[in-house]
Write a structure and sequence with these properties.
Bound molecules: flavin-adenine dinucleotide
Structural class: alpha+beta
Number of helices: 15
Distance between the termini: 35 Å
CATH topology of the largest domain: D-Amino Acid Oxidase, Chain A, domain 2
Radius of gyration: 22 Å
CATH superfamily of the largest domain: D-Amino Acid Oxidase, subunit A, domain 2
CATH class of the largest domain: Alpha Beta
Low-confidence stretches: 475-486
CATH architecture of the largest domain: 2-Layer Sandwich
Strand content: 15-25%
Shape: globular
Helix content: 25-40%
Largest sheet: 10 strands, mixed
């Protein structure tokens, strides 16, 4: 699939979506499946914002249960099952062991009750049945876990996904239904017309500006949402950092939940790796400047080493990591981890819709509610939403190129991403399409090989290759170079 501006500019669209993260992708699929003439622009690569920097969980949010946010948990729990149904390759059941240490975190009886409720909130059918573990059973399940003070544990289920792949496969699904999608194209500004909006966009590859007309515009720009002209969104951004280490250093069959004050952290098995995360701190800088700081690394290693004392993880064990921003609705109160993860859909001006907040898990529902509201506002007679009933893609379309684990490292895979998935830069392939950059300890060598293949496929010169390799530096993956073991 080639990048083509002509599809966006040839005739007026029904809907133009700004932002190619999970929220924008969900909107594009829903609108296209209802037969609307749909366009989407993304200023960088698809999924390059928060939607490739999450904990990769499809979850109701066990900690929101403790905060009494039952409606939010139920909504997301139902959605996690929906995603398991429509995208099974990107929604695997994952068991979590949540140990209880009296005096720190929740008492065991409360956790036992909580996980039963958690199962019930998935319409009674969670992705697996929760259970209660004695101290001995908990230590058998997670041998390296701190034994001192351990009372027992609960085991419950959520879904494990690949956030960037979920965006890309949702976009592939929407393109198959006729949506026109363009990465490296930035929204500049818009003028209201009697029919909708006349938008000026800039192709970041050529520097040329173009006009796109649309009956309705959806601002789905995540952490950038309040910066977009005409936006009525007020955000509070919080930063979350994840680190990746070898699973040999922290052998975990199930994911493990750790408590740190009022917060919880996860140790998540990911093939030969474990993902450790996350932090949650207020962030005031520009969204594109988000970076992992030494104190983020110290915090995560400290928390993990407290619960896995024999692991003695250090900076030298870190293979990679990422930092992302939660685009949370600013309600003017609360500590970072207390701010609601609920979403907001708002008509800021006639035919201009801001969609913000929410979670990866609830993206499909956010799209359904938004397109319902736009269709009602425009008095369009569109068919009802059908995104929960149809698979994202067929098994043949995803085999070997999309899944929770990175695909095998091969020239064929790289060719597929360039020809079928809009990859134009090396980091598009190494980070978003495959996660190779995060997964492999020899990511640098892999990037050099992939660059050679892309040079053949896309006709890059030696200077192009050097430039592309520079884009794949650790700074691109939001880690400070001197914090990474090479
Ligand atoms: C650390 C962390 C962990 C998380 N873990 C989970 C989890 O486990 N499960 C879960 O359900 N949720 C999780 N979330 C939340 C979830 O990741 C986000 O809610 C979701 O990814 C936000 O998607 P988005 O599309 O709104 O934003 P983004 O993914 O940031 O997409 C917005 C896009 O808009 C583009 N854009 C901005 N301005 C313009 C412009 N002018 N023109 C064109 N394009 C523009 C940006 O480049 C960007 O790609 C987590 C979030 C964080 C930060």
């Amino acid at each position: 699939m080639n990048r083509s501006l002509a599809d966006l500019t040839a005739e007026p669209l029904d809907v133009l979506i700004i932002g190619g993260g999970i929220v924008g992708a969900g909107m594009a699929r829903d609108a296209a499946m209802r037969g609307l003439k749909t366009g989407l622009i993304e200023q960088h690569d698809f999924a390059s914002g928060t939607s490739s920097r999450s904990s990769r969980l499809l979850h109701g949010g066990i900690r929101y249960l403790a905060q009494g946010r039952i409606g939010l948990v139920r909504e997301a729990s139902v959605e996690k099952r929906t995603l398991h149904r429509i995208a099974p390759h990107l929604a695997e059941p994952l068991a979590f062991i949540f140990p209880s240490y009296p005096g720190a975190g929740w008492p065991l009886w409360q956790m036992r009750l909580g996980v039963k409720m958690y199962d019930l909130l998935c319409s009674g059918h969670n992705l697996g049945k929760s259970s209660s573990l004695s101290k001995a059973e908990a230590l058998q399940a997670v041998p390296q876990l701190k034994a001192e003070g351990l009372a027992g544990a609960v085991r419950y289920f959520d879904g494990f996904t690949n956030d960037a792949r979920l965006v890309l496969d949702t976009l592939r699904s929407s393109a198959a239904r006729g949506a026109s999608l363009l990465n490296y194209c930035q929204f500049q500004n818009a003028v209201r017309t009697t029919e909708g909006w006349r938008c000026e966009v800039e192709d970041q590859r050529t520097g040329l500006r173009h006009v796109v007309q649309a009956g309705a515009v959806i601002n789905a720009t995540g952490p950038w949402a309040q910066k977009v002209p005409h936006s009525g969104v007020r955000l509070r951004l919080t930063k979350g950092v994840h680190l990746v280490a070898s699973r040999e250093r922290l052998p975990a069959r199930d994911a493990v939940v750790l408590t740190a004050g009022r917060r919880i952290l996860f140790v998540i098995p990911w093939g030969e790796r474990v993902i450790l995360g996350t932090t949650d701190t207020n962030y005031a800088g520009a969204p594109e400047d988000v970076r992992t700081a030494p104190e983020d690394i110290a915090y995560l290693l400290g928390a993990v080493n407290e619960f896995f004392p024999s692991a003695r993880l250090s900076c030298g064990d870190i293979i990679s990591g990422w930092a992302g921003l939660r685009p949370l609705i600013d309600d003017g109160q609360g500590a970072a981890s207390d701010i609601s993860r609920a979403h907001e859909i708002r008509r800021a001006e006639p035919n201009w819709w801001d969609v913000a907040g929410g979670k990866l898990t609830t993206y499909r529902l956010m799209a359904q509610q938004t397109i319902d509201q736009i269709a009602a506002d425009k008095r369009w007679t569109t068919p009802p939403c059908s995104t929960a009933g149809e698979p994202l893609l067929s098994q043949a379309e995803t085999a070997g190129v999309s899944g929770i684990l990175p695909p095998p490292f091969s020239k064929e895979a790289v060719a597929h991403y360039c020809r079928e998935e809009w990859a134009v830069h090396l980091d598009d392939v190494m980070f978003r399409r495959t996660s190779w950059q995060y997964y492999y300890a020899d990511a640098r060598q892999k990037a050099e090989q992939a660059a050679e293949w892309m040079a053949e496929l896309l006709g890059w010169s030696d200077e192009d290759v050097a430039r592309e390799l520079a884009r794949c530096q650790p700074s691109m993956m939001s880690l400070l170079p001197d914090q990474v073991a090479t």
